[in-house]
């Protein structure tokens, strides 16, 4: 997969202020506020920054945490996991493998079959309805 590398000015022009704050500033939207929290429509969640497919709707579950949660990414190479020691915590950050945008964190307290909870920010993703063409990477 080709990496998407843009300048800060290009990212700011491409993203909404909220998307920029989450994807490029490693921010977190307040719990319970994300537009995809209660979404159950079939489809694929793609990176809002670059269009990279991230999660399928069939892997989404209600975690009760206030953020959309998934049991696994579309493929192992769709995301990158990075050790995060910010704010005095030990967590695993999840980033888009194509544009390195911050998506959220993964925790080992999810349901079977993976036991993982990919806790994502709605602002970091777009939902593409089942049957609709996925944008080519970079079209985010």
Describe this structure in words.
Zn(2+) binds at residues 47, 50, 96, 99. The radius of gyration is 14 Å and the shape is globular. The chain has one domain (8-129): Metal Binding Protein, Guanine Nucleotide Exchange Factor, Chain A, CATH 2.170.150. It contains two helices and nine strands; from the N terminus they run ααβββββββββ. Strand 3 (60-61) and strand 4 (69-70) form a beta hairpin. The strands form two sheets. Strands 3-4-8-7-6-5 form a six-stranded antiparallel sheet, with no helix packed on it. Strands 2-1-9 form a three-stranded antiparallel sheet, with no helix packed on it. It has helices at residues 8-14, 17-23, and strands spanning 43-47, 53-56, 60-61, 69-70, 79-84, 91-96, 102-107, 117-120, 125-129. By secondary structure, the chain is mainly β.
